[in-house]
């Protein structure tokens, strides 16, 4: 397996949507191939893990935005995410979450270079459905985004495909930006690579901002699961998914002030400065 692409930087994905739609469950399912239905977390979580993209190990950060904390980002702030990609989630049994997703897609559409995927979750609850699949598909088409109806409670191949396609697209974009910057050798490119190199060194020394892990429950449990995923079973039949993780992952609790400090939240006015923050 190639490791070269890991020097390129992290792919950053934000998972957004109304509360209770299953953002955490989806993220955990993708990273661990497991469904954890019984925990409640009202904090924003940042998952860091190496995943396989096109045969190469790539560092991925998935920012799981809690819909319940008073401290959480607003829908407007989501449009200012310095992420490479966003997964917008709604629940097929909650019409209001679909409207929330519509609003999010509208805002994210204004963010240049952001890859966005629309996920309709809780497909296993079809008997309680409030949003027809055709409506979700039409919304995604209008936004120019891929669309998948999935269930994080079940082993949906579409869920893995959705994340993998998004990560692969973001990865390709980062590679292309890096090549472009290297070719032009302009001042911004120097700043970008300098920032990245510095970031890498700081992370190698334990990180500029030490991860704040929770003393109990979700973070510790997920950290254990993500770590355990490297030895977990292969993806389910029908999934094109590679094994969830090849290296140990971490989970970090985030608060808004920390997000600004980390550069997860910032203006997207200049594409090069966004890239520099990753
Ligand atoms: N039946 C079913 N339940 C699900 C599915 N995904 C999540 N849930 C349940 O929905 C509830 C909310 O899931 P979470 O993953 O906490 O949702 P969230 O969007 O992260 O919620 P907030 O942190 O409040 O924003 C939990 O009780 C999950 O067990 C699914 O695909 N099917």
From TrEMBL:
Residues 193-202 have a biased composition (Low complexity). It catalyses: GTP + H2O = GDP + phosphate + H(+). GO terms for molecular function: G protein activity; GTP binding. It holds the Pfam family Ras. Keywords: Hydrolase. Gene3D superfamilies: P-loop containing nucleotide triphosphate hydrolases. Its EC number is 3.6.5.2. Residues 193-213 are annotated as: Disordered. Belongs to the small GTPase superfamily. Ras family. This is small monomeric GTPase. It comes from Frankliniella fusca.
